[in-house]
Amino acid sequence: MPPVLDIDQIVKKFGNFTAVDNVSFQVEDGKFFSILGPSGCGKTTLLRIISGFLEPSSGSLRIRGEDMAGIAPNRRPVNLVFQNLALFPMMNVAENIAFGLKRQRCPAREIESRTDAMLERVGLTGYGPKDIAQLSGGQKQRVAIARALVVNPSILLLDEPLGALDLKLREQMKIELKKLQREVGTTFIYITHDQSEALVMSDTVAVMNDGCFEQIDTPRNLYESPASSFVAGFVGEANIFSAFVESQDPELIVRTSTGLVMRATAMQQMEGRECSLFIRPESIILMPDDNLEDLNRFELVVEAILFDGSNTKILAMQGDSEITVALPQNQQFAHIAVGDHINAGVHVDGCKCYSGEMS
Amino acid sequence: MKSKVSSGLFIFLTPVLLWLLLLIVIPHIELLLMSLQGESDLGEPIWTLSNYTAFFTESIYWYTFVRTAVYALLVTVLTFAVTFPVAFYITKVVPVRLSGFLTILLLVPFWVSELVRVYGWMILLRESGVINHFLLQLGLINQPVEMLYNDISMIMGLVYTSMLFMVVPLISSLEGMDDSMIEAAHDLGASKFVIFFKIVIPYAAPGITSGSIVVFMLALGNYLTPNLMGGKNSLWFTEQIYNEFIASFNWNQGAAFGFLLLLLSSCIIWIGLKLGRQQLGKALS
Question: Where are the beta strands (DSSP E) in A82-238?
């Protein structure tokens, strides 16, 4: 069985500017696939190519094995949930949802039953006769998703649909979306610049930068072994140092520009002496046991404590380098105060080194 | 506090109320009374409905009345048909920075008075006019053709003078429409035809309604354009009123006609709103 979406060497140019640069990937049926990247990386262009609003400059796009070249958006088995939702304000909730079904010339009774079923699925039973203006942000969100899902697309495309919601609601919608996707089994392609949305919901995440895919992987792999310095910096938090390679044999030793010497893990072939070093805040161990092996040990001076509940961090100095350290959730380090000198260490695996200067 | 608010409201409302009372209500009461008066055989003023019955018994009045209403409706529809593509093009097709410029281009002719603009048309269309001159030069016609003083030129003139009042509300209502709404409909399987009739028109409905009301009223009550471009044959109802007041000096009859015209425009607008399922307040807000 062919993958539901097969994109092969898609390029999209606007004049001299290449928005999407030779991207190839496949999405399997029923997966939650996210495209994660900073604004302006070309992810929306890619989405519009898949939905048919833009034609690629070159390359091919197949949906369920069928070539989509020259097929207009209204004839593609793909539906889009717009960033600003684009609900029709002159129609009520039920009419909005029924819009796509009416275009397929479904019998009236089927339209009604499918609309009701969809409303129930998104938790808006009985909201059919309401006006769009009467709904809250989260409810509008659900209507937009229901409107696109009700026509049974092969792929549902979502263009940063949670962007306009407040934080609490966003967290809640993340979970709901993931649940909904699992229930309906439709392939979701989700565009976002928010790494937490991508990591929480997706089966697979593609990280996009400057029109190219940097890495396509599971959220865990993306976080734990980023393939490039861009991914390491964009996904999750990291302490980033520009550094020089001191020696490569038998193991990689780097010296940061602030003078810290570290044993590190090379994540790619090291070319030249310049490199960048990434250390996640949670991989730094405070007061490490003396028996632990393969540890880079150093002393930190606490500069500030950034209290944020379960996400509390301390900001510390090691010589001239500023380092963020995540505090474990138990109260073990609750006594730490600003100005304290504490021993710290980080395992070699936690010091990830990428060739070249950081961007 | 509450009495303060209402006294403030009263101060702001006073000019409006005075305006309505002095310029609209009182003259209309006067006209109404006048329309119900006539002269007896002895030349004494009496109360009578004869001014109104005259309207129903004289077929020429009837004919002019219906003709004016039908043509005013036609002008409204034609104005909409001409201006909607323009408004759509300005708001949705061209880049935003151009749309302001195009709107100004559209408005510039309306800085000139209606009279001058109508004379402009007459210079173009009359027997010795610019168009005839060129057609003769090109040898397409041997004799100059009179293009003025017929229904077509009159309707065209009315559409031209009304355009502004349709295009401005259309532009402002289409401007508020998010392009992604059109894309969303397209994405959900709608053809261009369906998008136009199910999304664009309903979205612009308040603008269409308010534009249509204004254009209809202006066309119905227009005196200048039908008179100049339609000539003696124009048979516009306002001319009938003018004739009664000025030519025949029959103010009572003129007042009755004025009231009938008011009744007519109110009825047609009411029917239009019902058919379009629009509310007056919503459309004009």
Answer: 155-159, 187-192, 204-209, 212-217
Q: Between residues B183 and B139, which one has the greater pLDDT?
A: B183
- CB-based burial, A93-113: b 16+ in 10 Å, e otherwise: bbbbbbbbbbbeebeeeebee
pLDDT of residue A12: 92
pLDDT band at residue A11 under the 50/70/90 scheme: very high
Three-state secondary-structure class, residue A24? strand
Of the candidates A352, A353, A347, the one whose C-alpha atom is nearest the C-alpha of residue A294 is A347
Q: Which of A73, A88, A89 is closest, CB to CB, to B186?
A: A73
The encoded tokens of residue A208 equal: 């996009």
* pLDDT of res. A208: 93
Q: What tens digit of pLDDT does each residue of A315-351 get?
A: 998 888 889 999 887 777 888 888 888 888 999 888 9
* Structural domain spans, chain B: 1-35, 51-284
Domain locations along chain A: 5-230, 237-355
**How distant is the Cα of B187 from the closest Cα of chain A, in angstroms?**
5
Instruction: Label residues B84-114 b or e (16+ Cβ within 10 Å = b).
Output: bebbbebbeeeeeeebeeebeebeeeeeeeb
Peptide bond connecting A2 to the previous residue in cis, omega within 30 degrees of 0: no
ipTM of the shown complex: 0.81
The answer to whether B183 contacts A80, with C-beta atoms less than 8 Å apart, is yes
Residues A193-213: tens digit of each pLDDT: 988 889 999 999 999 999 999
Q: Cα distance from B86 to chain A (closest Cα, Å)?
A: 23
- Report the C-alpha gap between A102 and B168 in whole angstroms: 33
Is some CB atom of chain B closer than 8 A to the CB atom of A133? Answer: no
pLDDT (average), residues A217-240? 90
Q: Cα–Cα distance between B155 and B234 in angstroms, integer?
A: 10
pLDDT value at A293 more than 60:
yes
Q: Pick A237-355's CATH classification: 1.10.150.320, 2.40.30.10, 1.10.357.20, 2.40.50.140.
A: 2.40.50.140
Chain A, 91-120: which have a CB under 8 Å from a chain B CB? 91, 99-100, 103-104
CA distance A282 to A280: 5
Instruction: For chain B, list the strands marked E by DSSP.
Output: 37-39, 45-47
- Region B51-284: CATH code: 1.10.3720.10
Nearest to residue B118, comparing CAs of B160, B165, B69? B160
Instruction: Determine whether the interchain pair B187/A80 forms a contact, defined as Cβ–Cβ distance below 8 Å.
Output: yes
- pLDDT tens per residue, range A14-39: 989 999 998 999 999 999 999 999 98
Using a CB-CB cut-off of 8 Å, the residues of chain A touching B202 are: 90-91
Token duo for residue B275: 């058919």
Q: Which residues of A touch B190 (CB under 8 A)?
A: 74, 99, 103
What pLDDT digit, counting tens, does each position of A266-277 carry? 888 887 788 889
Q: Indicate whether B1 pLDDT > 60.
A: no
The C-alpha R_g of chain B, in whole angstroms, comes to 23
Q: Two tokens at A354?
A: 């990428």
Confidence grade of residue B4 (pLDDT, cut at 50, 70, 90): low
Identify the pLDDT of residue B184: 92
Q: What average pLDDT does the segment B162-176 reach?
A: 91
**Contact residues, chain B, for A86 at CB < 8 Å:** 178, 180-181, 183-184
- With CB atoms and an 8 Å threshold, state whether A80 touches B184: yes
Please check whether the domain covering A5-230 is classified as CATH 3.40.50.300: yes
